[in-house]
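Box 3.1 A note on notation
Throughout this textbook, protein chains are presented in two layers. The first layer is the amino acid sequence; the second is a token string describing backbone geometry. Keep the layers aligned when reading.
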Amino acid sequence: MDLIIEGVVKAFHLLIALDPEVLGITFLSLMVSGTATIISLAIGISIGAIVALTSFPGKRIVVSLVNTGMGLPPVVVGLFVSIFLWRSGPLGFLGLLYTPTAIIIAQSIIATPIVMGITVGALQSLPASLRLQILALGATRIQMVWMLVKEARLPLMAGVMAGFGGVISEVGASIMVGGNVRGYTRVLTTATVMETGRGNFDVAIALSVLLLSFSLVINYALTLIQQRDRPR
């Protein structure tokens, strides 16, 4: 218990002292995970809406694959991204391995199925007659999709939080493709693992407290946006 208290105190000291390394790690964590979440939203909501609102052969198989992807192990993603970005890999010429961009790519792959699966479920839960009513009022297909997305905004915001939560707390893929390079690709999760391995439990707890605190603040802000226009 004393160790936990010591870690919490150290977390406050690191914040108050504005430790440059901790601030850099924190900023990189938020930047990488935030960018990955935005990319996953753009891809996940777009493809999820297409899957949910169109009929085609094998749709159930596609939805099943999307749902399976929601539980995609991060280490598997890290493995395949590493293979593709390796010097002798198909994309090795880009020189992206062990860079923040590589972490963004891996985290985007992890978050996209989560957002896509929730989008498919949210849009499919809407009454089928709602689409016909919107089109009958003279809306175009794009306007119809937009209105359906707005109608399903509550579960979609949950998808945003789930996607962000999935990547900000991810560690396996980040280490594999980022390398945990000090001052360059080290994020809060990988730094916590490293400090734990060194036996610096107070520092590891401090980093964990920072991670949990920032996750709480961001998710609280997203919750306020989600609940602001909630039907009563």
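The chain is about 75% helix and 0% strand. The two ends are 43 Å apart (CA to CA).
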